[in-house]
Amino acid sequence: GTIAENLVLFFDAHIGELLLLLAVCGAAILVRHHLRLGLGLLILLGCNLVTQLILDFDPYNPDVGGYWLLSIWILACFAGIATNVLLTLGLQRSGPVGRSIRMLGFAVPLLALLSMAPAGLNRSDLSNHRDIEVLTEELYRPIPTNGVLCTGYFETVFALWYLDIVSGYRPDVAVLHRIMRTHPGYDAAFLARYPDLAELIDAPARAAEVNTDWVLETANQRGLFFELLPPDGVVSAEGTRLRQHLTGNSIALRATPDPVALSGPTESADAYWNTLHTALDLGQRETGGNLAWLHFNRVLLLWEQGDVSGALQHLDWAEAVLPNDPTLETVRQQLMAL
Fold first, then answer.
1. Residue 183 in this model has a pLDDT that exceeds 80
2. Averaged pLDDT for residues 223-230
C-alpha cells in the first residue's frame, strides 16, 4: 500500500483509533500549559515517524513496532496526560457532574485499551500457523544423512533452531546460517559444535560467504545444500560463482562440482511445487508472501544460470500466489524479451 495506507494499518494494529484520539487531546493540553516540553515531545515524535516513513515499510511486520517504540511511548504519555486531566476535573467537581467526569476518566482509557484487543489478539494468535513447519521440514527433506544445510533467511533459521534444539529433529544435519556469520561470536559457536566444518567458513564473515572452493571439492562426498540468499542482498563474486553450481527442485538446492546444465521445466519440478502449494494455506498472507518470495528467488537464480524456460515456470507459480504484482510483471517482460 501507500505510505498513508500503511501508516493507518500500523496505528490501527499497534495503538488503536481511540487511544490515538486521546493522545491528540493530551498533546494539545501539554502544548498549551507547557509549551517547550510539549513541542519537544512532538519534535521527537515527528523525527521518529519520519525516519521510518521515508522508507518503505510493511505495517504487518512486528519489527516495525520496535522501530516505533519511541512514538508509541510518547503517544502513551500524551494519552496519560488527557486521562489525568479528566480525573483531576472529576475530583474538583462534586455531585453527579464530578462522578460522571471521574467515570469518564476511568472509562475512556479502558475502552481505548479494549479497542486494541481484537487486532492484537489476531496478530498474536499463531496457533493455526502450521505452514512454517511444512516449509522448514521441506528444507530438511532432500538432505542425506550427515549433510550440511546453509540457510539464508532469519525467518528460516529460527524455525530450524526450534526443530533442532526443542524437537531434536534431524540431529545429523549441520546447519550454517550465512547471514549470522556477520554477527560477532557466531563462527566460534558454529565451530564448537561442528569442528569438522572449519573449512566451510574459511571465507569473509562480514560478506556472509562460504568457502566456495571447499564446497565444490566436497560436494560429491557430502551433501551440501543451500537456501538462496535474499535477492535484494549484496551477492559477492564468490556468491555468484556458487550460484552457478546449485541445482534441484526443492527449496534447498544441492551444490554440484560442475556448473549446472540447463534443464528447463520438468515433471519432477511440477510435482514437487504443486504438492507444496496444495499442502500450504495460501490464504494466509505470510504464507503466500513467503512462497511467492521463494519462487521469485528461484526465477532470479535460473535466469542467472541461463535457464529462461525454468525461470518462466517459477514466475507462473509466483504470479499464481501473488497476481498483478508489478515487480513480477516487469521480470516477465524482461524474460520474454530474451
1. yes
2. 86
